[in-house]
UniProtKB/TrEMBL annotation:
This is Tryptophan--tRNA ligase, cytoplasmic. It is found in: Cytoplasm. The keyword Aminoacyl-tRNA synthetase applies. Keywords: Aminoacyl-tRNA synthetase, ATP-binding, Cytoplasm, Ligase, Nucleotide-binding, Protein biosynthesis. PANTHER family: TRYPTOPHAN--TRNA LIGASE, CYTOPLASMIC, TRYPTOPHANYL-TRNA SYNTHETASE. NCBIfam families: trpS. Its EC number is 6.1.1.2. InterPro entries: aa-tRNA-synth_I_CS (IPR001412), aa-tRNA-synth_Ic (IPR002305), Rossmann-like_a/b/a_fold (IPR014729), Trp-tRNA-ligase (IPR002306). It comes from the Eukaryota. It comes from Panagrellus redivivus (Microworm). GO terms for biological process: tryptophanyl-tRNA aminoacylation. It is an enzyme of class 6 (ligase). Pfam families: tRNA-synt_1b.
Amino acid sequence: MLRRGLFFAHRDLARILDLAEKKKPFFLYTGRGPSSGSLHLGHLIPFMFTKWLQDAFDVPLIVQITDDEKFLWRDIPLDKLGEIANGNIKDIISVGFDPRKTFIFKNTEYMCPAFYNNILKVWKVVTINQARAIFGFVGEDSMGKSAFPAIEAAPCFATSFPHIFGNKKNIPCLIPCAIDQDPYFRMTRDAAPRLKYEKPALIYSTFLPALQGAQSKMAGSDQNSCIFLNDTPNQIKNKINKYAFSGGQATTEEHRRLGGNCDVDSSFQFLRFFEEDDDKLAEIRQRYESGDMLSGELKKEAITIVQRVIGDLQARRKTVTDADVVEFARVKPLDFTF
Ligand code: TRP
């Protein structure tokens, strides 16, 4: 994902890499707003990358589930959001996280003195004018909405988690996430020095394109734009065959003559995200662009790889239980010493 430029931007990553080199502590923080049904492939990208980072660095990981955020923004009752969140947490666990190294919490459940103190501190230093300028809040928005960004900011600070970091104050964090979360963390980076805390570092991904084309993103609200974690191999095959936008030509003759356009082709974009072998990807591009490979053949490659990625996740998802969700949320020390 790094080589392919899918994680394409960062803030202060060098500082974290210096810490890693010197074997000094830092932690990873990411999150998810509960969304109904199964997570789709686009949601899972930052988590797959986060899993890789955690394996590479062997540091604690904190995952915030913002049931409060979705309560404020969507028309869903809190108890229903709790259920939805549990399903999403199981999907996240299926990416392969280790409960001894990972804390996954819902905001409405974890809210505790240490966490709340940091929320208060952020509230105090960010003005309504700043919040409006950053997030575009208007007078008609509920006051909860303008209060929320501090709740996404607070987990950047180690003191929100005394059960993990004890009384250590300045353990910095690295946040892998999609680029749309940047406003929250620009706000946090601005507030941090005023609270005498470390600024969070960030590494940002682009969005997985929807089946309909490279210029769009997967959105759970449109069943046909997404591959879901619980799609069957057949559904994956049918969705890609039927909906995946093709950069190929209208007829086989034209395609042989002119070749296809990989940059707008959804199947190629899926391969770009999930085909690990650089040489194989380059060969597919060359064959498609020269007209040697037809759209149907390219789709077949994409189907195989997406079925494999989803199949692996599903195999792990089957083993995840309600007790696992409880265990990941348990307020306990993680397997690290600081
Ligand atoms: N706001 C994010 C969403 O809607 C959820 C979230 C909370 C998050 N904390 C985060 C995402 C930290 C990335 C990093 O999904």
